[in-house]
What we know:
CATH superfamily: Class I glutamine amidotransferase (GATase) domain
Bound molecules: zinc ion
Oligomer: single chain
Distance between the termini: 50 Å
Amino acid sequence: MVTVTVWNEFRHERENDDAREQYPDGIHEVIAGFLDERGFDTRTATLDEPEHGLTEEVLDDTDVLTWWGHIAHDEVDDEVVDRVQERVLDGMGLLALHSAHYSKVFKRLMGTSCSLKWREDEERERLWVVEPGHPITEGVDEYIELPESEMYGERFDVPAPDTLVFTSWFEGGEVFRSGCCFRRGAGKVFYFRPGHETYPVYYEPEIQQVLANAVEWAAPTGGPDPEFGERDPLEPLD
Ligand code: ZN
């Protein structure tokens, strides 16, 4: 069974009325809830727990880590960032959600600024599936429509994704690469754009479906450990 750790900064939901109304127990509880219902072995971790809830022990028992943060990226300890990065390179999957584009963990793995344009004006968003048949899009039609979204616009300063799965259109005219797959070492990373703290995005069945698909996709698949360094030839050389 795939083991998922759902990480959340968990600040907006405690400090902001609109966010608390949408996610009274925190975004992490909603995400963990629907992943649990879909058969994943799920736990949560939050910023204010010791070591942000991401001890060696927890990460050693995590196949896929999902990350939601926004206002407190700077409070994430660099030691924990190192640990997460190392685990991803070793094969742990990572789902970076919405404003996690600016998280230390995602920026570290991308190596770029991860900056973008944004606007909070309750706009319609259409996420177009641009890679039909990709495992992350299973069960999704040609597009997902969200009636109220925060706009994220290009340029999104990330390295070109290995596979682009969703491209968003926004009512105000911008577009955005909303579903991006990357590989870092042995680990798979998926960035997924929707999910602002004051919109009910994580209650949308299609969004839940995409995230469940992404967990399956990002879970480690094993394989032989690669060997590095100088080696003898397999056949005799003259
Ligand atoms: Zn947002």
